[in-house]
């Protein structure tokens, strides 16, 4: 498992592995409570666009 960090103005703060698993945190997402960016050890924030499925209201 890659080490993840919360990006703050004072620097990156490491996130405990148990917290990463509990909240299913990933690089490129935001923390669930403070909405701060989650980055890797180099400070990279790669946000992957998730393709939304389009559904029709007609059958």
TrEMBL record:
Name listed for the protein in its UniProt record: Uncharacterized protein
Organism: Anaerosacchariphilus polymeriproducens
């Amino acid at each position: 498992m890659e080490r993840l960090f919360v990006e703050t103005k004072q620097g990156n703060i490491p996130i405990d592995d148990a917290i990463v698993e509990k909240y299913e945190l990933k690089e490129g997402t935001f923390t669930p409570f403070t909405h701060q960016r989650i980055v890797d050890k180099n400070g990279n924030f790669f946000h992957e666009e998730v393709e939304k499925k389009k559904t029709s209201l007609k059958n």
